[in-house]
Specification:
about 425 residues, mainly alpha, 19 helices, about 0% strand
Length: about 425
């Protein structure tokens, strides 16, 4: 789940962690309540009758995806590394804001990338994309908590996906900023409706894609990166995990706090992120097209992930501190209470075994989320009984997300550039 491994200081080297030899797959399948890409999700597995098997051919596809990347974005990153400082970034920004035709002599690498991102997939349904955006916004505070405590924290259960983050020091040094950047990324997507070409969500997603390619090139050039053990940095398997992070894990996290997400909303969220993943350069053949397919793939991740290593533990601890839990000197009361709740919710949402593997504090606050979920459930049942309340719920969620972004970013929008570009 390697979004935003770009927050290293300008010019800082990408020091890769030492190699750790490990098997890609365990000797046998773990039970479904093992450290998981599916938080609190035994209900998902049971409801959809999902059983993960080690002979599932999709596991081999996932293995092969660890050595595959994004040729179009990688080619552009190569051009940018050879161009004068900042030149490639300026061309990219002009093409994003004014169109590729606004450049008199655009490099072929940029032309090729824009040919990809501006193509409209035959399967794309803009109405469903917009519905998915509204469905994400509607989750309000519960959705924001799910993004942080479930989507981000749950990603640290994967030792494979944490390697780029650990190498750049993205969260261990700048956890609050990365949380804010993740919020801005999701905010841009969730408030861009149908994700049209000129929308903030479209442009932000393309910036993230190019940033991934720049960081990937930096990591591959580092003598510390162990391709044989870890695969290619920010590989296609990682991007499939990202897709799961913002679909199944987000939905499961919001549901754990009492939100009722209809089947149509689930499928619309899946369709929204299918298009986002397309813009991020993830091959559509690897993506899950329905919520059930995503649950099935999450079950396969359950049995193919070795669990968190020291990098994942360090990232988890940094995230806990970013919430305000256990920070010295202690933050203000409001932040301390928020941090305590988030730790409790994370333990409740991920489950005891996964939380223990991440070495998260065991706090009595874990008993609060079910109580809050019951309160939220009552308002959700009322919304379902009176359909006219739905639009108000979406509007309230959008207002909350706008306010949250304003506070977390402090008026400084994210640039989504890699460290090598940051000084340009």
């Amino acid at each position: 789940m390697p979004l935003f491994p770009s927050l290293a200081r300008p010019g800082a080297p990408l020091d890769c962690p030492p190699a750790r030899q490990r098997e890609t797959l365990p000797e046998r399948a773990r039970p479904v309540d093992s450290p998981s890409m599916l938080p609190r999700a035994t209900w998902l597995l049971a409801r959809f009758g999902v059983r993960a098997r080690l002979d599932d051919p999709r596991l081999q596809v996932l293995r092969e995806a660890t050595i595959r990347t994004d040729p179009a974005a990688d080619a552009l990153a190569g051009f940018m590394s050879q161009a004068p400082a900042g030149h490639g970034r300026r061309l990219l920004e002009q093409a994003l804001e004014h169109g590729i035709d606004s450049l008199s002599d655009p490099p072929r690498e940029l032309v090729a990338l824009f040919a990809e991102i501006e193509a409209t997939p035959a399967w794309l349904d803009r109405t469903l994309v917009a519905a998915g955006a509204d469905a994400m916004v509607r989750q309000g505070a519960e959705g924001l908590c799910a993004l942080s405590a479930v989507s981000l924290m749950g990603g640290y259960l994967s030792s494979n996906a944490t390697k780029p983050l650990a190498a750049t020091g993205a969260l261990s040094r700048m956890a609050p900023r990365r949380l804010a950047e993740t919020t801005q990324f999701v905010h841009a997507i969730a408030t861009s409706g149908a994700m049209l070409r000129d929308s903030s969500g479209f442009k932000t997603t393309v910036r993230v894609r190019v940033m991934h390619a720049v960081v990937r090139a930096q990591l591959r050039a580092s003598p510390g990166w162990q391709t044989e053990s870890w695969g290619v940095p920010i590989n296609q398997r990682d991007m499939v995990a990202t897709h799961l992070t913002f679909t199944v894990m987000f939905i499961a996290g919001a549901t754990a706090l009492g939100r009722l997400i209809s089947a149509h909303e689930r499928e619309s969220i899946m369709h929204l992120w299918r298009y986002v993943s397309f813009l991020l350069g993830t091959p559509d053949a690897l993506l899950q097209k329905s919520f059930r397919e995503a649950v099935e793939l999450g079950a396969l991740y359950n049995i193919s992930e070795p669990g968190p290593d020291q990098d994942g533990l360090a990232l988890a601890q940094a995230l806990v501190q970013a919430w305000g839990f256990g920070v010295q000197p202690e933050p203000v009361l409001q932040q301390r209470l928020f941090g305590s709740f988030m730790v409790g919710f994370t333990r409740y949402a991920l489950g005891r075994q996964a939380a223990d593997r991440l070495q998260l504090p065991d706090t009595a606050w874990k008993h609060l989320p079910p109580l809050l979920a019951a309160v939220r459930l009552s308002s959700e049942l009322l919304r379902r009984a009176f359909p006219g309340m739905h639009a108000g719920s979406v509007a309230a969620g959008r207002q909350l997300m706008d306010r949250h972004l304003e506070i977390t970013m402090g008026g400084k929008p994210a640039r989504f550039v890699a460290s090598a570009e940051a000084s340009a």
